[in-house]
Write a structure and sequence with these properties.
The complex is a heterotrimer of chains A (about 90), B (about 400) and C (about 950). Chain A has one helix and six strands. With about 90 residues, chain A is mostly beta strands. Chain A has one domain: Folate-binding superfamily (Folate-binding fold), CATH 3.30.2270. In chain A, the strands form two sheets. A four-stranded antiparallel beta sheet of chain A has the order 3-4-5-6, with no helix packed on it. In chain A, strand 5 and strand 6 form a beta hairpin. The two termini of chain A are about 30 Å apart. Chain B has two domains: about 180 residues, FAD/NAD(P)-binding domain; about 150 residues, D-Amino Acid Oxidase, Chain A, domain 2. The longest helix of chain B is centred in the first third of the chain and has 21 residues. In chain B, the strands form four sheets. In chain B, strands 3, 4, 10, 11, 12, 13, 19 and 20 form an eight-stranded mixed beta sheet that branches. Chain B has an eight-stranded mixed beta sheet with strand order 7-8-6-15-16-17-14-18. In chain B, strands 1-2 form a two-stranded antiparallel ribbon. The N terminus and C terminus of chain B are likely disordered. Chain B contains ten helices and 20 strands. Chain C is of the alpha+beta class. Chain C has 20 helices and 50 strands. In chain C, strands 8, 9, 12, 13, 14, 15 and 28 form a seven-stranded mixed beta sheet that branches. In chain C, helix 2 packs parallel to helix 3, helix 4 packs across helix 5 and helix 5 runs parallel beside helix 6. Classes of the chains: A mainly beta (about 90), B alpha+beta (about 400), C alpha+beta (about 950). At the A-C interface, helix 1 of A face helix 17 of C. Strand 18 of chain B pairs antiparallel with strand 31 of chain C, so a sheet runs across the interface. Chain B: Its cofactor is FMN; FAD. Chain B: It is an enzyme of class 1 (oxidoreductase).
């Protein structure tokens, strides 16, 4: 049971969250400019490192906000993704 | 040979522990079930024996040692049914062919339906199985109770069992012993099984791979096949190949040894758990993956808790069995939950990955087609649909989407 | 004197023990009555009664005896029979209670068919410092931490605090250690910030200091007593963790080391001092380290003879040798027990010299005995430490695997768990770690001073012997040198494993099954590693390494994990405000997500088929009513709401006028249909979106994800309002009359209240309502929405308003038929995650002008194939034949031999009252081109001929939508 720090609610148990995979995969400005391979990459390819991964979580059973953290996928050590955190509403 | 810890005076030699040579015709990365089966069929079907199977830890110590040993082929989609049923037919031959006991038991599998939509999906799958030549039956709750009397088919359940598909040819095998049986044959045919030899990168020349860097030095290779499961991305990342894989913890658990009580395999997606009783007598339970990526071979306890609650809901008599051990492996999952088996942008590098939770049951089938792919440089008809180009074209093999059946 | 039923019970003057001598407890083992005292375990009661033998071994049927006094027991495993039978419990762990009934087992338990009626519950708590283990180190840590004001939880497996202090005779500050234990226990009990959990095992130590603790609450009480929960599963999140988990003594491996009467030296000491039980009167002690000398002295002071202390070390500490000799024991240094005799209980041992190379030397000495106390050394209990991600290393000085780092950022290991066995050291480490942990947790405190003690001193270096050589046989033939007693696995088995080529301890474990029993290696693990290291000629057990330590630390009933999560509490049940009315009407319910929805309302004598025909007829010819409160509802509000909906729906919503509703479809990024529903525009900046019943939560998540992570610049807020609304669909030619009566202020005529419009009104009963003209059946229909509170009143009012028109409640089955007759799809039934809107023939809902989520995916090569499966209507040629849902369609001339190429499948199939025949919907390759073709559906060995048609079978012109002409 990971302990995840929601930037708004503080430390909460993993069961309150839903996982959102790799962070910072931007929706293409114009998807129709992408060829099929590029679009396929956008749809399906995500980083899968053994080590630090900047990833998204959403606090579904709390404030319902999305945020990202950096987690080491080998040790589960988590640190806030401060420089990249988006300003949410 | 070994039965339940009983050792006869003259044990089989299973494998040598050779020093790696400087070069092999084929290097297979990963001595799990798939790596071993690939080497076996390369030697058996294609006459290739100058093979090294490199293993970073101990042979068959990854998901091969951690799965719930379920074998079945009752998949919905043609491509899946063909591949898994090919595997099942090989399973049926292997006890004789490998001549090393691995307790393959065709005790049958029940896939339960708890909602009307699950029943529709299940029947669709069973009808498709019939047309694909895969044995399948649709059972009513009363018929289910006859097959598996300890399963609660009463309306007491929050989601009562309303039916199930039943594949009689499905079953279980003793995973470790399967690996040892394959390893023994590989070794016999001259394949070098090299443990404690971690592949850390590749030697490349243009669009070809000429060898692998390992913790025991560089080893040259004519062809390289990756069968590294959860670690595949770590390897392909070094070549700049981006595969649509995500590695997740997958947990399973076992009870103490009990007298036979559970006659078959039961899988439920809605009351999420799958259960069987091992040859030795332990109840073996598994279910879904942890949602987050992870290589720690350690999962979250709420996943275990949910599985056990599901088990007791379906099998009230499991309540007083004891949880003896929980464990986790690392499975690599693709967006359509079907594997990737085929060539890569490097002409002589081939991948077999993305099996998610379906790897064990496919072991011989995967080995068969991957060996063909490596030996001929082109996919076998059975793995043709499983190339990575499907993620560009959109021709997914989406068992997940098409019928939410746990693998 | 010893009593007749407890011949081995020591007099109180010799050993008081921690038992209540004023009371007798009766239990039954293998049909024989056994008496004990409160404070006994089943094992100590058996020993007091003179029984040491338990069930025979699993494979070889060899007699076995009680080996330990703790959770590492491999032999004394029993099936509990009183109450709900429970398999494989260690007799050493069962506290005796009146009426206990047990049967000894031989390595295999069984499950009864009896339903477990015991209750199990869970608690979730947070703490600043958790201390695991209440021996001297753990108690010291708890005292230090608790004095800081931190929230402390102390957890111990046993019924009493004190750990090894209860097994011995040491003194702290000049008083018996048990007095110190008592004072400490009181101090902790009186501190409101401290919680002490006894009879509680920490099962697992998970990421970020999350602990799972199993508390046995009533297992020590007679089965019939009380209504308290039997066991409780604690979920504990702690800031700091102190592991004072102690150590487990190892047995020794030698020929016939499995004979009843061979017992761990520490267990002997525990039975003597804790239970006042003398397990044997003529005891040989066989040891590799100092600790067993205390056992010898305790035996001697209890009146037993100790004819021999056999020490593997050639030069045991002179102090100990002197003490032993003075008390009457002969010490054999540099020696080993090489064989035992007995029938079956041990009656003699053979002692030989053991040279520095480990070979036997000298001539044998045979010594008769009825007990052999063995000490193969100690294994620090590193299980929890390793589970939490810690690494262990082999420490040659203490001859055990110890934590590599004992002072992590949030985990500290103290005492025997890190190989510190002297009492002063344990106390000092405990005080220091407790104070440090509290300080790091924000409660600054200095460690208390360590009191004077006279307990165990730092030991001399042990000399582990992994397998005593056999007198005649080579190691590979040592088939009676048992390494794992429960699994009947021997030194020969380990050799056999290595003969196969195995080198890894993981392989050897799996080949021999060593450490796979209920003790999970606590008893057998390190000995197996030691034997393997010797077999492989490794430098030390550390070179071989351990297998992985996995939760749970001790076995626990699966029911404990399930807790109350079963039956109706397995998953929440959601019901609508009208639910009681459906129950009163005799509805048969269907699970849709967590909702209970009426499937149909059978009248007496009706089955589903006839009820549905009746309900359908009412909707098509009169008036019918359905509870549609379960549909998901999301308010989408903000100045950018129109833009946002244009992006998430395949069709346009920005241009939807206020006061109107529109059907919308949404796709995943992969272009596959995700959900659908009708959304209303309430105001320029406000929409009310409806979703499918099962898709509501998923859609809300979906919207939030895009809003927050892709388009944070949009001014949009989404709020789930499903629970705030209750709604009914009033359907049929007479629905206008009913709704007119319900809402007298509303002009319900076709002219002023057009299709896909909605109006706000107040119903005749005073309830504010929103009425919409939407239809999922093709009939004239109204959807009336009211605040959830008024749901039942709305239902009652509608039923009353339509009573004279025989208004008929209908369920999901009728809804399915009605919509299918019109070719309306149900997402999730007629689609399956591989279907695009274009496959459904819904090009009209797919905008060409704007981008939307998933649009790019629709132009991927696979989506452009001409042979994609498309939605069609299916008419069995025989109009009475019902196609099974899920059946597949094949070419008329397709081969009957598998694999038969499949063209598509039946997604929905019904009898239609309105059409007077059966019909179905399906997805068929090139379906739109095939209209008019007849295909074959092979079902259970025969064929059903099916004509392909367009999906809209009823009222294709749509003339019924506005109802009968008025006037």
């Amino acid at each position: 049971m990971l302990l995840i720090r929601c930037p708004w609610c503080g430390d909460r148990d993993e069961v309150e969250f839903r996982y959102g995979g790799q962070a910072d995969v931007a929706y293409p400005t114009d998807p129709h400019e992408l060829d099929d391979a590029e679009w396929g990459n956008f749809l399906f390819v995500r980083a899968n490192p053994m080590g630090a991964l900047t990833e998204r979580w959403v606090h579904t059973a709390g404030c319902r906000r999305w945020f990202s953290v950096v987690r080491d996928t080998a040790t589960n050590e988590m640190t806030p993704d401060i420089p990249r955190r988006r300003e949410s509403r | 040979m070994v039965v339940d810890g009983h050792t006869s005076p003259a044990p089989d030699r299973l494998w040598r522990n050779p020093e790696p040579k400087s070069n092999y015709d084929v290097v297979i990365v990963g001595a799990g079930g798939h790596g071993l089966a690939t080497a076996y069929y390369l030697a058996r079907n294609h006459g290739v024996t100058d093979i090294a199977v490199l293993e970073r830890g101990w042979l068959a110590g990854g998901n091969m040692a951690r799965n719930t040993t379920i074998i079945r082929s009752n998949y919905l989609l043609d491509a899946s049914a063909a591949l898994y049923d090919h595997a099942l037919r090989l399973w049926e031959e292997l006890p004789e062919e490998l001549d090393h006991e691995f307790h393959f038991s065709q005790c049958g599998v029940l896939n339960l339906a708890h909602t009307e939509q699950e029943a529709r999906d299940a029947r669709r799958r069973a009808f498709a199985n019939e047309l694909n030549g895969v044995d399948a039956e649709w059972l009513t709750p009363d018929e289910i109770a006859e097959v598996c009397p300890i399963l609660d088919t009463s309306p007491r359940l929050r989601y009562p069992v309303i039916g199930a598909t039943y594949q009689r040819r499905a079953g279980v095998a003793k995973h470790d012993h399967v690996a040892w049986a394959l390893a023994r044959k590989c070794d016999e045919m001259g394949v070098d099984l090299i443990q404690n030899c971690e592949v850390t990168g590749f030697v490349t020349a243009g669009d070809r791979v000429t060898g692998v860097h390992t913790s025991r030095g560089t080893i040259g290779a004519g062809r390289v096949g990756l069968a590294a499961a959860g670690r595949t991305s770590v390897l392909t990342d070094t070549l700049g190949i981006s595969l649509p894989l995500q590695s997740h913890p997958l947990q399973a658990m076992a009870s103490e040894i009990l007298e036979p009580v559970h006659p078959c395999v039961v899988m439920s997606n809605h009351v999420h758990v799958y259960t069987s009783q091992a040859h030795k007598g332990e109840l073996v339970l598994g279910a879904g993956i942890d949602t987050h990526n992870g290589y720690a071979q350690r999962g979250s306890v709420h996943v275990v808790e949910n599985q056990l609650a599901a088990a007791v809901e379906l099998f009230p008599i499991f309540g007083r069995a004891h949880l003896l051990r929980t464990w986790a492996g690392t499975v690599d999952v693709t967006p359509d939950a079907s594997p990737i088996i085929g060539p890569t942008p490097y002409g002589n590098l081939f991948v077999n990955c993305g099996w998610g939770t379906g790897g064990f049951k496919a072991t011989p089938g995967a080995g068969w087609v991957f060996a063909h792919t490596i030996a001929t440089g082109a996919p076998h008809p059975l793995n043709e649909p499983y190339g990575m180009e499907r993620f560009t074209s959109g021709a997914l093999i989406d068992e997940h989407g098409a019928a939410a059946v746990a693998h | 004197m010893m009593s007749s039923s407890n011949p081995n019970r020591l007099n109180a003057s010799v050993r008081s023990g921690r038992i209540d001598r004023t009371r007798v407890v009766n239990c039954t083992v293998d049909g024989t009555t056994v008496q004990g005292r409160p404070g006994d375990t089943l094992a100590s009661a058996l020993l007091a009664s003179g029984t040491i033998e338990v069930g025979s071994s699993v494979h070889r049927g060899r007699p076995r005896g009680i080996l330990t006094a703790d959770c590492t027991e491999p032999n004394a495993l029993v099936q509990r029979l009183d109450g709900c039978p429970e398999p494989m419990l260690a007799a050493t762990e069962i506290e005796l209670y009146e009426g206990l009934e047990a049967r000894t087992l031989s390595g295999v338990g069984w499950l009864s068919g009896e339903r477990d009626t015991a209750r199990y519950d869970k608690k979730f708590v947070h703490s600043d410092v958790v201390v695991v283990g209440a021996g001297p180190a753990g108690m010291a840590a708890s005292l230090a931490a608790a004095r800081s004001g931190a929230r402390v939880i102390l957890i111990d497996q046993h019924r009493e605090l004190g750990g090894m202090l209860l097994d011995g005779q040491s003194h702290i500050s000049g008083h018996p250690a048990t007095e110190w234990v008592g004072r400490a226990a009181r101090e902790l009990a009186e501190n409101q910030n401290v919680r002490v959990l006894t009879r509680s095992a920490v099962l697992g130590c998970y990421d970020h200091n999350y602990l799972l603790v199993a508390e046995r609450r009533t297992d020590h009480l007679p089965t019939s007593s009380g209504a308290a929960t039997r066991q409780r599963l604690w979920h504990v999140r702690t800031g700091q963790l102190v592991l004072a988990t102690g150590a487990h003594e190892r047995p020794l491996v030698f020929a016939d080391n499995d004979r009843p009467g061979v017992m761990l030296a520490s267990a002997v000491r525990s039975y003597l001092n804790r239970h006042a039980v003398l397990p044997g009167r003529n005891a040989v002690v066989f040891t590799t380290s100092d600790s067993a000398y205390t056992t010898a002295l305790d035996l001697l002071s209890s009146g037993a003879r100790v004819p021999a202390i056999v020490d593997t070390r050639p030069d045991p500490p002179a102090r100990l040798v002197e003490q032993a000799r003075a008390a009457g024991a002969q010490v054999y240094p540099g020696a080993a027990v090489v064989a035992t005799e007995g029938a079956p209980r041990i009656s003699a041992v053979r002692i030989r010299g053991l040279d520095t190379g480990g070979a036997l030397n000298g001539s044998p000495v045979d010594v008769s005995c009825d007990l052999l106390a063995v000490c193969g050394g100690w294994n620090p209990a590193v299980q929890l430490f390793a589970q939490s991600g810690g690494t262990v290393r082999w420490d040659p000085v203490v001859a055990g695997f110890v934590p590599l780092n004992t002072g992590g950022r949030s985990t500290r290991v103290v005492g025997a768990a890190r190989g510190t066995y002297d009492l002063a050291g344990c106390l000092a480490q405990g005080f220091a770690a407790g104070a440090e942990a509290a300080t790091v947790a924000g409660f600054r405190i200095a460690p208390p001073p360590v009191p004077q003690v006279d307990g165990d001193r730092p030991g001399a270096r042990p000399r582990p012997v992994w397998a005593v050589p056999d007198e005649s046989r080579p190691p590979e033939a040592c088939t009676d040198h048992f390494v794992d007693l429960q699994r009947d696995a021997t030194v020969a088995d380990i050799h056999a494993a290595t003969e196969t080529g195995m080198r890894s301890v993981q392989h050897v474990k799996r080949y021999t099954t060593i450490s796979t029993g209920v003790e999970q290696g606590k008893n057998s693990g390190v000995n197996a590693i030691g034997v393997l290291a010797e077999t492989l000629a490794a430098n030390s057990p550390g070179e071989v390494g351990t297998t992985t330590f996995r939760p749970p630390y001790t076995p626990v009933p699966i029911a404990l994990f399930a807790g109350r999560t079963h039956g109706s509490l397995y998953d929440p049940v959601r019901t609508t405000p009208m639910h009681s009315r459906h129950e009163q009407a005799g509805a048969v319910f269907e699970d849709v997500g967590q909702w209970k929805r009426p499937r149909y309302y059978p009248r007496s004598g009706e089955d589903m088929h006839s009820a549905v025909l009746r309900e359908c007829a009412a909707a098509r010819t009169g008036v019918a009513i359905q509870d549609v409160s379960t549909l998901g509802r999301i308010e989408v509000v903000g100045s950018d709401a129109p833009t946002f909906l244009d992006r998430v729906y395949t069709n346009g919503f920005a241009n939807l006028p206020v006061g109107r509703a529109r059907y919308g479809m949404m796709c995943g990024a992969d272009g596959m249909v995700l959900d659908d529903g009708v959304s209303m525009r309430l105001a320029e900046d406000r929409y009310l979106m409806s979703t499918t019943t099962g898709g509501a939560a998923k859609v809300l998540d979906w919207l939030e994800e895009w809003l927050q992570t892709e388009w944070p610049e949009l001014d949009v807020y989404c709020t789930s309002v499903t629970e705030q609304w209750a709604a009914v669909a009033v359907v049929g030619p007479d629905s206008r009359t009913v709704v007119g009566r319900l809402a007298p202020d509303l002009d319900v005529s076709a002219e002023s209240f057009g299709f896909m419009r909605f109006r706000e009104t107040v119903l005749g009963n005073g309830t504010p309502a929103r009425v919409a003209r939407v239809s999922f059946s093709g009939e004239l229909a109204f959807e009336i929405n009211v605040a959830g509170w008024y749901g039942r009143a709305l239902w009652d009012a509608a039923m009353a308003a339509g009573a004279d028109l025989d208004i008929t409640p209908y369920g999901t089955e009728t809804m399915h038929v009605l919509r299918a007759e019109k070719g309306f799809v149900i997402v999730g039934q007629d689609t399956d995650g591989t279907v695009t809107p274009l496959d459904l023939g819904m090009d009209w809902a797919v905008s060409r002008r704007k981008d939307f989520i998933g649009k790019r995916s629709l132009s991927r090569p696979e989506m452009l194939r001409e042979d994609r499966k498309q939605l069609v209507g299916l008419l069995p040629v025989d109009t009475d034949t019902l196609l099974p849902e899920g059946a597949h369609l094949v070419e008329p001339d397709a081969s009957r031999r598998p694999p038969v190429p499949m063209l598509g499948h039946v997604t929905s199939s019904y009898h239609s009252a309105a059409l007077g025949r059966t019909f179905a919907l399906g997805l068929v390759s090139r379906g739109q081109e095939r209209v008019g073709e007849v295909l074959r559906s092979p079902v259970d060995g025969s064929d059903i001929e099916v004509e392909i048609t367009t999906p809209v079978l009823y009222d294709p012109e749509g003339v019924r939508r506005d109802g009968p002409a008025q006037g």
